[in-house]
Amino acid sequence: MHTTLEKANRAIAAALQTGSELGLKPLTVAILDPGGHLISLQRQDGSSTLRPQIAIAKASGALAMGVSSRLIGEMAGERPTFIASLGPISPHGIVPAAGGVIIAAEDGTALGAIGVTGDTSDNDEICAFAGIAAIK
């Protein structure tokens, strides 16, 4: 079982649809495979220029640490030097803010990750979960 391009695009479509339904700012959504390689990325019209890198870094950080980017943000409050040191050694960076979520199989195996950015981190995460729900 893995995250195919078709599933990735379906997850992105669901995340973007949720953002539109909630009236959010333009979003960018990235899907990575378990090794942290980009499968698919889409950015809505009006999404700012750094958003692709932020979406990828949210997803990549989740995969690298084995927890959501929200939890990485909480860890940053407790261990700021440690979390800050991860960015330079992570191939795609790490953004310690909600919106990066691991896509997991029923047994917990990581199938990839989704990263969403563009609105508040809480709203980004809502859209990330909607994307995952669309492919479960």
Quick synopsis:
This protein is an alpha+beta fold.
Question: What does this protein look like?
Answer:
The protein is 48% helix and 18% strand. With 136 residues, the protein is α+β, with helices and mostly antiparallel strands. A four-stranded antiparallel sheet has the order 2-1-4-3. A hairpin with a 5-residue loop joins strand 3 (100-104) and strand 4 (110-117).
Secondary structure layout:
Layout: H1 5-21, E1 28-32, E2 38-43, H2 51-65, H3 69-78, H4 80-89, E3 100-104, E4 110-117, H5 121-133
Antiparallel strand pairs: 1-2, 1-4, 3-4
Helix pairs in contact: 1-5, 3-4
Question: Are there runs of 5+ residues with pLDDT below 50, and where?
Answer: none
The overall pLDDT average reads 97
For the secondary structure, the number of strands is 4
- What is the straight-line distance between the termini? 12 Å
Key traits:
about 140 residues; four-stranded antiparallel β-sheet; alpha+beta; single chain
